[in-house]
Every structure is written in structure tokens, then in C-alpha cells.
Amino acid sequence: MVHKSGSTKKRRTPTSNAPRKLFVLDTNVLLHDPTSVYRFEEHDVFLPIMTLEELDNNKKGLSEVSRNARQVTRLLDEIVSSHAGPIENGIELFGPSHRLASGRLLLQTEAISNDLPRGLPTAKADNQILAVVIHLQRLMPERVVILVSKDINMRIKARALGLEAQDYFNDKVIEDTDLLYSGMRELPRDFWNKHGEGMESWKREARTLYRVTGPLCSKLLVNEFIYQESEPPLQAIVRNISGKTAEFETLVDYTHPKNSVWGITARNREQNFALNLLMDPEIDFVSLLGQAGTGKTLLTLAAGLTQVLESKLYSEIIMTRVTVPVGEDIGFLPGSEEEKMGPWMGALEDNLEVLNKTDDDAGDWGRAATHDLIRNRIKIKSLNFMRGRTFLNKFLIIDEAQNLTPKQMKTLTTRAGPGTKVVCMGNIAQIDTPYLTEGSSGLTYVVDRFKGWSHSGHVTLQRGERSRLADYAAEVL
To answer: Per-residue pLDDT for the chain (477 aa), expressed as one digit of tens each?
Structure first.
């Protein structure tokens, strides 16, 4: 039985004896996820005629919503075309969904009497869908009829009328962002007592590697950071997992000035972890989460400039971000693509100013020359023109990635060609897009999906390093 609408943990066969619920879909669910009719396992899905009417009204245009409306229409056409007999009794979804769903799709085939309370306008599409849910509940009292809608007001209205209503949960990677993978783990005090027996240790270049066996090893993930506040303190990265055996490798200490990156040193443990990922050529994908002022952009730019201009590992830095305004939009902007993106790239300018001041001996002329050289190697690109591109040997930075949908995140990440490193940065507590939540953000999606891959790493930065004022504001406001 599914507890939440849209859960798809395991596939059902048509022989399942579980009681079937009847889910009535609002239009916004189909526009949000065009394949949502296949996401209800063994339960039946009902589409009111008003839902189809609203789909028709949304199909024109080039927006994401219009594309999804056309995709849904094509999908429904395939389902209906695959069914030979009359559709009054529903269409089996087992075949069209390739065994993903085993319920039936029911379409409204007759006029339904309007049983709405007085005062509710009957011409409104939402109210007509509610009338369908009331009718179905009276027609089939033995079945659980549930309205599924992304519209909060619609769900409140349904509950006020005594109907069961749910949000569509299939797009949520996790329910509680506190459970999101942080990329690091503190080892318990008794770790070495339980895992120290038969431990092996050896050197590789300047780093020490350990191989330990014990119960905690199976819970660790590849490229997860581990630390212990002992004397001396331990900071390491998990390099390999095999059953109950794990290999750890000690880190480069970027808190020490001799290991500074473009004049920047790590100010805390998490920043040290982040620089170890950003400077590792074997890591192709890095995600950095953290509130304002934790140093995400500064560390990423410092690592990017070092590897572009000094070690020449990458040919240039490409920076992009979602253009979602916090307040009112300022309208159309003049100029080329780079000039249009200029106002959105204030964070880049602020951080370049800091990085330019790290060279104290250069003088004003030297700093101006360095600034021009840096600007020549940083390209600012708009997300709108990313489709079909391939980036070779680039250091790709995706800023404010919390405002991306999982689909947009996939489009961007798959642009990476050979030798390209992708860095996603963001703060999931600062989502400006009205249709995304912390659980359904593209940033949450990639953090969850990439964890444990040997060429990716993630760190959640926790301590603000901006100023006393910024730290206090983040805490109390």
C-alpha cells in the first residue's frame, strides 16, 4: 500500500492483492511531472475532463509548462491508443508503463452532477475538479478517493469539504533536509579500539593511508570525510570500501600558509575538506552547500584560478547561475550575453576583489594586470543557451544551484566533456524559485544521487567566515 501519493519504492505486478486507492489528479501535478500517471504503483488514477481541458489551455508556447503539457498529451494519447476495448472501465497501465504501474487509468466519460456547496462558483476549474472528487466518493464509498494537487489552496478547500487531499511527493528526494548527506562524519571515541585490530598503514607521496576493518566501515561512503577531535586530530577521506574494510587517506592541510590556494587558506575544518575536493583532479563533480558567508564562492574561484593559470589543468573557468530575482525584476538588460549576466554576477566581482588583494607585492599596476588576466579566463554564460553544448577541459561553476530543478541540473551536468570539472554551490535555505522546495531542489537531488561515487565529493559548510554582523544576522533574523 502506498502511504504517500507518488511513492515508487518498489514495482508492483498486476496480481497484487493490496486494496486499490483512487487518485484524482489535478492539472498542476501533470504539468509538474508529465509521467505522474505511472507513479502510483498498484493504485488507480482518475483524470477529470476539466484536467484535460486545462492541459489543452497550457499547451501553446515554449515554456517548461507548455512543453510538459504537450508531453502529457502525447503520453495520454499513447495509453488510450494502446487500449482496444471501451474505456469506461479504465485502461490497464501495466503495459504502457513498462511494468512501473499496475493500476488503471480512468477518464471522465460522462457528465457529473454538481454537488458543490452553495456559494462556490461552478464555472471555476478547481471547483469542477472538487465536484468530481465528491461524486466519486459517493459513487464508490468502499474505496479511498484522494485528490492529488500541488496547489495548497486547492488542498485546503478539499479538506474543508471533507475530502482527502495530498501533495505530490514523487519529486522530493528526501522529506527532511536534516537527513541530507553532509559529506563528513565524526568518528566515535572508541573507533580505534573497535577497528584498530589488524590495521595496516603505508605512505603514498606525502600522505598516509590506513586500512581498517570493523562494523562502522560498511556505513561509510567513498569520498566521505572523517574526522576525530583527538590529540593529534585526525582528518581523512574515505578512498575505498570493501564490505567491512575501508581505506582512509590523510588530507592536504590547506589551513597552513605554505599550502595556500591563490593566497587563500582554509579557516576551518569544512573549508579544508572543500579545498581538498576542489584541488583533486580525480574528483570531477563537487557540490558545496552552506549558508551565506561560509566561503563557497571564494574557495571555488581560488581553486579554479590556481588550476587554470598556474597548473594549467583546465583552459578556463565558466560561471553560470539561475537568474531569479529576489525582489521585482529590473526588466530587459542591454548588451551581449556576458553584459546581460553582469548584474547577476556581483558575487563573482566581490570575490575577485578579495582574490586580487592576496598578492601584496604586486602593487597597483601588477594587480590591475592580474585582474585583466583573470577576467580573460573567466567566461560568464547564461543557462538559457546550454542545451547541446559540450565543455572540454573547463572548470564549470554553477552558482545558486538551489534554484535549479532536477531536470535543469541534469541538462547542465551532462554538458561536461573530457577533462571538465563541475562545481555546484548553493544554500537550500535560500530558494527564490516559487515552485521549488528544499526537498525538490536540483541541488538536493545531485547531492543525494552523487554520494558514494568515486569521482564526486560533497561538503556542507557550516561556519560563516564573513563578519560578526553577517553571522549574527544569519542566526537571529
So the answer is: 344 444 434 444 444 455 688 999 998 888 888 888 888 888 899 999 998 888 888 888 877 788 888 989 999 998 888 887 788 888 888 888 888 888 888 888 888 777 777 777 777 888 888 988 998 888 888 889 999 998 889 999 999 988 999 888 776 655 555 678 889 999 988 888 888 888 898 998 888 899 999 888 889 999 999 999 877 788 999 999 998 899 999 999 999 999 999 888 999 899 999 999 999 999 999 999 988 778 898 999 999 999 999 999 999 998 887 765 444 445 566 666 566 656 655 667 777 777 777 565 656 666 677 767 777 788 877 776 677 788 899 999 998 888 888 888 888 898 888 999 999 999 988 887 777 778 888 899 999 999 999 999 999 998 877 778 877 887 787
Question: What pTM was computed for the model?
Answer: 0.73
Residues in the chain: 477
Query: In this structure, are strands 225-228 and 184-186 parallel, antiparallel, or unpaired?
Result: parallel
CA 189 from centre of chain: 34
Domain 177-250, what architecture?
Answer: Beta Barrel (2.40)
| Identical fold between 22-166 and 263-476 | yes
Backbone φ and ψ for 31, nearest 5 degrees, come out as -70, -30
Amino acid (one-letter) located at 115: D
Does 263-476 carry CATH code 3.40.50.300?
yes
Superfamily, domain 22-166: 5'-nuclease (3.40.50.1010)
